[in-house]
Request: fold
Amino acid sequence: MHLWWTEHPDALIGVPTGQKFVVLDLDLQHADAQQWLEDNRHRLPLTRTHRTRSGGMHWLFAPNDKVRCSASKIAPHIDSRGHGGFLIWWPAHGYEVLHGGVLAPVPEWIVEALNPKVVPITTRISAAHRPSVAALRGALNVLAGARVGERNHALFWVSCRIGEALRAGVITEPEATDLLLSIGRQIGLLDREILRTARSGFREGFRT
Reply:
């Protein structure tokens, strides 16, 4: 071990998250994250906080099994780390530690943001279109089950199928938009990316 550190003196130290603490990772080099912190600082309790090399901040909280690893689920460039995650331990490299003796519980509003309530998938479409409704429901379930790395592709594919349904008069655009917003939020997508992708898919599906 001594030889390894001698050969790699600039290596960063990573520590696992989840068992002893969970983390809110703020990438403050981005304007979105700066604005989020400005808007929510008053709701964040005093807790151990690390400065990072990039100018960001790691807010450490007491362990909470409902805080898992996520990327931008709370807001753009605001990530979380729980069981299965790792964190660069910046204090070992000389970066500032604030409130080192405090490890506050995770605020409930953060827990709720990371675990949105599941809204049942429903459609308000007449009985005359039952076969198309079944197809739509199947497409929406594909989106609801999409994992990280698949979500945007699934959203566009489902939006294209809905565009075809719009052309056939099976569903209205406001109904379709409400459905995609509801399911998209459940799987961690932001409203603006849901709406942008949905509109693109609607157009593509409508003209095919």
Remarks:
- The first strand starts at residue 14 and ends at 16.
- Residues 127-207 form one domain.
- The chain has two domains: 8-114, 127-207.
